[in-house]
Amino acid sequence: MPGPTSSTFGPWSRRLILVVFVLAFITLWQTGRGALPWAFEYPKGAELPLARWIGQFTKWLLNEATFGLFTFSQLTRFISSVIDLPYRVVLSLLSTGFLSGRGSAAIQLTPSLSYLTVIGLVALIGHHAGGRRLALLSAACLAFVAVFGQWSSAMVTLASIVVAVPLGVAGGGLLGILAYRHRWVERLIGPILDLMQTIPVFAYLVPILFLFGFGPTAAVLATIIFAMPPMTRVTLLALRRVPGELTDLGQIIGCTRAQMTWRVLVPTAKDGLMVGVNQVIMLSLNMVIIAAMIGAGGLGFDVLAALRRLDIGAGLESGLAIVALAIMLDRLSQAFAEKTGAAPAGPGWTGRHPYLLAGLALIVVAGFGGLVVPALQTYPAGAVLTTGTFWSRVVEWINVNYFDDIEAVKNALLLGVLVPFKRLLLDLPWLGVVAALGLLGWRLGGLRLALLAGGLSFLIAALGLWEKAMITVYLCGISTVVAMLIGMPIGIIAAERRGLWRWVQVVIDTLQTLPSFVYLMPAVMLFRVGDFTAMIAVVAFAVAPAIRYTALGLQGVDPNLIEAGRSMGCTPWQLLTRIKLRLALPEMMLGLNQTIMFALSMLVITALVGTRDLGQEVYIALTKADTGKGLAAGLCVAFIAIIADRLIGAAAARARVRLGLAEAVS
Amino acid sequence: MTLSPPKLVCSNVWKLFGARASEKFAAMGHAPSLEQIRANGLVSAVRNVNIEVRTGEIFVIMGLSGSGKSTLVRCLSRLIEPTAGEILFNGENLLAASNAQMVEIRRHKMSMVFQHFALLPHQSVLENVAFPLDVQGMGRTEREARAREMIALVGLEGREESFPRQLSGGQQQRVGIARSLATQPELWFLDEPFSALDPLIRREMQDEFMRLQSALKKTIVFITHDFDESIRLADRIAIMKDGEVVQCGTAEEIVLNPASDYVREFARAVPKAKVVRVSTLMAAPGGRETQGDIASDKTIAEAAPRFRQGATALRVIGDGGRPVGHLLRDDVVALMLGD
Fold first, then answer.
1. The pTM is what?
2. Which of A42, A74, A123, A291 has the most CB atoms at less than 10 Å from its CB?
3. Domains of chain B and CATH, by start
4. Calpha distance A159→A162 (Å, rounded)
5. Best of B73, B89, B120 to mutate (most A CBs within 10 Å, chain A)
């Protein structure tokens, strides 16, 4: 990467350029509205009709595209059936039982696994992976789901995950192996992966809805596509980390390419790969919930329906069930990742497969038991606890007693901060902002970054989405600032105290495993719909990286330097501000970066509570299955994310060089 | 001493790293200087190396880090494709071998021991040692029997079911050695096998290695950065610097006649008595009374204790069992105390 162009411009001329630019910007902003109206409102005639092009392209794909032997729609139908078959089987197993016939005329051949069987199986898996504590925890999570009457929805959700995760892991893993083997594959998929991880999730749903229709199959497909990229990345990284000696070993003993991959590389990289599997599981869960919008059913649908009719109690219970599932899946997959070596095997087949045997026994015994005693098959409806009315009453009580206080805080913030900031951003000329971003890119990372930042922001204007994008920037910006203001002090306090840090870690780890949908519930309960609610939900979701990176940055400061500071007689405050915070700056900037990424991804989901930004555009496109509009708006969100990511990344790299933590790249 | 036939001959081998290295190499006239290589944006790792490894000898390649020794050994085994040059293995051009032929050669004729052991963490000792045989498609009973034999050979009986992480560094390298011997290779590469071990363990492993070699008589290419180790183990040593072999010869030749200041720096720290052989120091026979016999291929350090009981000269017995000269106490004392 070319460094800052210090050779061509001295410090004075650079400062001069900056002053001239600021003056020009202010002049344009204050006086240009009359003289240069097109610098404020991008001319309609010059807009890129990207949405229409995409729309026409997808129509062509669906109706006319053909690969010679088969048409595109035949291909999509084939993909659907590949996913549909295993999904039906798992769903039958977990939820509906195996049926013969269709609709209401269907006859149940065998019942599904009873709730006791599923809980028992999960406990066995937990015991196998992590001992008695994990067995108890995972069983407790599922029992919670059963007791609160969320069982059938949870099983639908679980079925989608059981199907999506292996396919996502296999697909992502194979892609990662290909990228490891061939540089050109890596170069090809690198930018695609970047884009896929920054495009908001809703935007995925639109083309899938259009191509695959509404229903669980499309939802599972969306889940797989969404959860795959991290697996590919992790696979590539893990394979790269296999020591060169081991690949040399593979060659010198004459491994074929397949032997090298499957006998040397993959087993050696297993620990790293399991981290990827954990990510796929968590992302799948997150996505399955969101995919309720295109027919996934299950818990996601329950939350969505509750949100739509503002039934806080019901939504909260489904939300908690999601949390229980998330915790269970996360802990189980982590335990498998940490498990090392083979357990000592007993004699014979039964000795070698004690868990398999126990599982089979459980299925048979509980299966017959369920036929005799219905309460063993389905959790008795009479024993279901519901806290729905309780929560509704709590909310009611808060709203009755504290309505005025909450409203006062909300209105003060809205009128004092949110609205003025929004006005300011909307008032800025797009031309000036594009130029400013370009200049910033040039200062931080040279010409390439300048072109990237300026070019992408220009595209947003050219797509006619400038105003919506500014609202996204405003909400994201405010939320990021608030999240940093809350997260940094917590990080600073926790970094110093080991005991406290452990607790904080548990809390933020848990916060990060929760699907983003869940954050909406309490925010809506207290603040109803609107920008303020969106901000609260985004802050709650995005505060975790702010805390984490601050603490990690401070903890990573070279202890020798701290000791040196102490020996010079620094007060603790001086130690913090003059040494630690300065040296932790690059890490904290990465935290800022992550906070922005988290905020953006959550912001799109807050479209459900009535924002008017790009997320809303995507959401509307989703309800109308308008692929072009959805993708265009989705791309704009991705552009914002990429601009922020690259600019902050360049700034962090510069800071690192300035602090002597890294060599300057020439 | 009659010379055994060469097992591995490497002539004019070059390895340059960088974009379009072979094109640029040809453009530079196949014999570029260091400056030319740098000016072309390439990094040189191995430059014009010519060595000959004879059957049954321990050939040590010694060099500091960055001298190109690891790259060279990877060129010799074709783990890395040399930029130019010729490598003959048993008289056949290794660089012309097809992929399938290379797989065959590697499976049966060569093997390697690695600095950091390169054991597969998810496999037991037994599985690790049997792994090369497994890759060849050998049946379970046969390969496990062979692996057990090898494990016994390196003195690890009873640890077959352990996992690498449960073993000490020295034990792990014993597993690495057992694995590399499992295929019964003709040519044995050892890439700094003992460098990652503690000094005491290193010494123990060197002894173990010599014991194995005296029984197995493999042809060995041994890489090290430790000059003392190379003196201790080598039949012949090649010293590398900046990708070139600066001197190649027996320990004695190198210590007595260093080819450059660079080699002299290494040689200076070595007590001459440990490398100089009786045959080199001996005087012409006759005219003296001798108080015993000594073999001509012993080192002076080995011969010296014989003078402790007042002997002034020993009769030197050559290869054929015939006396070839006299070793004088004064010469020995002068060498051990002297320059």
1. 0.78
2. A291
3. 55-81+99-271 (3.40.50.300), 274-337 (3.90.1280.20)
4. 5
5. B120
